[in-house]
Known about the structure:
This protein has helices spanning about 15-20, 40-45, 50-65, 70-80, 115-135, 150-155, 175-185, 200-210, 215-220, 230-235, 235-245, 260-270, 285-295, 320-325, 330-345, 350-355, 365-380, 385-395, 420-425, 435, 450-460, and strands at about 5, 30, 90-95, 105, 140-145, 165-170, 190-195, 220, 250-255, 275-280, 295-300, 345, 360-365, 405-410, 445-450. It has about 475 residues and is an alpha/beta fold. Helix 3 (about 50-65) packs across helix 4 (about 70-80) and helix 3 (about 50-65) crosses helix 11 (about 235-245). The longest helix has 19 residues, at about 115-135.
Amino acid sequence: xxxxxxxxxxxxxxxxxxxxxGLAPDGGLYVxxxxxQFTASEIAGFAGKPYQAVAFEVLSCFAGGSFSADELxxxxxxxxxxxxxxxxxxxxxxxxxxxxxxHYLLELFHGPTFAFxxxxxxxxxxxxxxxxxxxxxxxxxxxxxxxxTGSAAIAALGGLANIEVFVIHPLGxxxxxxxxxxxxxxxxxxxNIALEGxxxxxxxxxxxxxxxxxxxxxxxxxxxxxxxxxxxxAQSVYYFTVAAALKxxxxxxxxxxxxxxxxxxxxxxxxxxPVERLVIATNANDIxxxxxxxxxxxxxxxxxxxxPSMDIQVASNFERALFEASxxxxxxxxxxxxxxxxxxxxxxxxxxxxxxxxxxTAFACDDAAILATIKKTAAETGQVVDPHTAVAxxxxxxxxxxxxxxxxxxxxxxxxxxxxxxxxxxRPPAMPEGLKRVMDLPERFETIPNDLALIRQFISSRLPx
Length: 465
C-alpha cells in the first residue's frame, strides 16, 4: 500500500513512513494511493467476530509491507487489552427515543482515557514505537488537543524510549478532568503546554513547526493528531463492526470538530461499506454545518462551549474530504488550502459541494440545546450522555425519518464533563475509578503565550542533549 499527499507535491510513502511523518512535507495530508476494497460478503463476515479481528482485517490492508501479520496482531491485541468492555466499541439500543426508527449509541469511551481517541491511539502508539525502534533515532511528537487527543496520546506514548511528547491544550478551554488527565502524567517524556489561545491557535502552531523543515528534521518532529492517517484507518474499523452487526446500511451521526472521526466513515465507504448517510453534528462552532449548508468554508473566532473538544474553527481533515470530492485534484486542493490559509474563506465549487452533499448532512446545536438534550435523553432512556454525544443526539432528532437505523457515536464518558451534566440534570454523573484517581494528583504544565518562537524555545529546552 502506497500513500500520496492531498497537495500532490510529496513523495509517495509506505504505511510506516506515513505513521512516523504525520503531515506530508508539502503541507498536505496523506491518503491511500488507492482505497482497498471489501466485498459485501467480506463485510457480512465481520458479524460476530471479535473487534480485534475486524481491526486486523482492515488495518492489514494498509500496513502490509510495513508490518508483518504477527506484529500487527500483537499490537492490536495489546492495544485493546485494557478496555473495560470486551466488545471494545459496544453498540447499545437507545430505547425510548421519541423520533421514528431504530436508534443506537455506539459507545467509544471504554479505553484508558474514557474517550474515542483511545481506539486509534492505543494502536498508533504501539506501531509507532515498533517503527521507531526499527528505524532508529528519536522522535518528537507535538500534539495540539481540544481535550481528548492529549490524554490519549500520553496514555499511549508516555514512558516509551526515544520519544518526547509535547501536548498543547488551550488554557481554560478544556474540562478540569480533561486537563488533569494530561497534566498529572508521571512520565518524564511528557511535557504539557497550556496555550494562551484557542485550539485553532494550537493547531496552527503545530503546522507552522512542520513548515520549519530544518527544525522539524533536527528534532524528528511528527504528529499523532488525526492529521496522521493511521488514526483515520483505525477509526474506520467501528463503522464496519456496526454495519456487520446491524446487517443493513445505517445513518451515522458524528460529533464533529476536526473532521477526523466522520472522515473515517467516508474512508469506510470508499472501502466498500454501504452507508445511508454521514451526519456532521457541530456545536456553536459551526464551520462544517455552514460549509455544507451554505457552500462557504469560512472560519471565525472559536466560541468556548459546553462541548470543548469541538470548539474548532478549522477542521483539518476536511482537506481529505475536499481532495476526494474534487476527484482527487491535488492542484485544486493545494490552491484551495493556500487560499483558505490566507483569507480564512473558501467558496466551494458547485461540483465539489454536490459530491460532499451526496455523502454528508450537517446540523449545529448550541449550548441550550445540549443541556436540553442531556436532560431529555436521561428522562426518556435513562442514559446519561456527555455534551459532545448530546450534540449528536440533538442532530439525530433533526434527520428526516428513514427506515435506516440511526447510530450516534458516543465519544466520551459523561464524567469527563461533569459540570455540563450537572447543569442539565442537577447532579453529577458517576465517576469511574480511573478518573477519580487523577483528581488528587499533582499537576505539571507550563503556561505559554500564543507565540511560535516561545513554543519552539520550550520544546528545544526540554529535549535530551
